[in-house]
Amino acid sequence: MKRVCSQCQKPFTAAELARSDSKTLEKERREHGVRGLHFHCYHCEACGHDEIFLDIQKLENESEEAFEKRRRELEVMARQMHGEHVEVVVMSR
After folding, report:
1. Contact partners, residue 13, CB within 8 Å, separation at least 6
2. Staple 41 to which of 18, 24, 46, 62, CB 3.0 to 4.6 Å?
3. Is residue 5 a part of any domain in this protein?
4. What is the distance between the alpha carbons of residues 69 and 47, in angstroms, rounded to a whole number?
5. CA atoms 21, 5, 53, 87: torsion sign
6. What angle do CA 10, 16, 22 make, to 5 degrees?
7. How many Å apart are CA 49 and CA 37, to the nearest integer?
């Protein structure tokens, strides 16, 4: 899956994956028992923008309607979370 910077539209490279930040968010997610969601953080070398991707996956036995509702709720939450140089993007997988 190609990910691009929402600020400058440059495709992210593997080197731009902020592994430490991603691992920290994933650890917190697991500690809180959140399922069907994974975090991937990137830092754009071109413009300095940070991007957090929330990959949402359908849970076992989750209806399509329930999945879409959960995705919409995450998108609302994500819009409220972004900072000055950070964007949160929700992606269905």
Report:
1. 45
2. 18
3. no
4. 33
5. positive
6. 120
7. 22
What is the β-pairing status of strands 86-92 and 50-56?
parallel
Neighbours of 39 (CB within 10 A): 19
- Give the H/E segment covering residue 78: helix 64-81
Is residue 87 within 8 Å of 80, Cβ to Cβ?
Answer: no
Determine the structural domain holding residue 67 and report its residue range. 14-92
Query: Mind listing the pLDDT tens digit for each residue in 5-47?
Result: 999 999 999 999 999 999 998 999 899 888 898 989 999 999 9
Whole-angstrom distance, CA of residue 89 vs CA of residue 79: 8
- Asked whether residue 25 is domain-assigned, the answer is yes
pLDDT at 83: 60
**Domain tally, the chain:** 1
Residue 9 lies in a domain: no
